[in-house]
Amino acid sequence: MVIGGDHGQESFRNVCKYIMRNKDGKNITSYIIKNGHIDHKKDTYAIFQQTLATQLNNDLEYLMRKDYCSYFKWKEDGKLEVAYEEKINDSLSNYASYVSIPLRILISGDLAFLCNSCWQKKYV
Questions:
Q1: What was the pLDDT predicted at 56?
Q2: Strand partners of residue 37
Q3: Residue 80: beta bridge partners?
Q4: Three-state secondary structure call for residue 46
Q5: How many CA atoms lie less than 13 Å away from 26 in the CB half-sphere?
Q6: CA 105 to mean position of chain CA atoms
Q7: Which of 2, 26, 38, 40 is least crowded, fewest Cβ atoms below 10 Å from its Cβ?
């Protein structure tokens, strides 16, 4: 998962790209979602802190837990469930099959985004 942000043209955008790779490291698929968008004449840390920072911090802390990973779980009827939960848990025995995927988080962005996010307290 690559999390990034960009300042410019009186707005801030925060996106996340999920990249699925096989065990050899080859890309299988990827998709992008928008986490947040701020329209404002100034793109300062104070504005970021008052709008998106707290929620993004909370979500990053949740995703960075070491004892959790993403699961793709198939029920007996073939329906797929996707979950983010503890690596070892009893609920996995309720599924016909499952795949666990460890999560690696990378943060990327322009210099303004990195200054406002990585060099302030916590993550953003």
A1: 80
A2: 13
A3: 74
A4: helix
A5: 2
A6: 7
A7: 26
Look up residue 70 and give its amino acid.
S
Q: 50 in helix, strand or coil?
A: helix
- DSSP string for residues in 58-86: HHHHHHT-TTEEEEEEE-TTS-EEEEEEE
For residue 41, CA distances in Å to 38, 48, 58, 89, 92 come to 10, 12, 26, 48, 49
Is residue 20 within 8 A of residue 123, CB to CB? The reply is: no
**Pairing, β 106-109 against β 2-8:** parallel
Structure tokens at 29: 């698929």
Q: Can you give the pTM of this predicted structure?
A: 0.58
pLDDT at 118: 56
In angstroms, the first-to-last Cα distance of the chain is: 17
**Strand pairing of 80-86 and 68-74?**
antiparallel
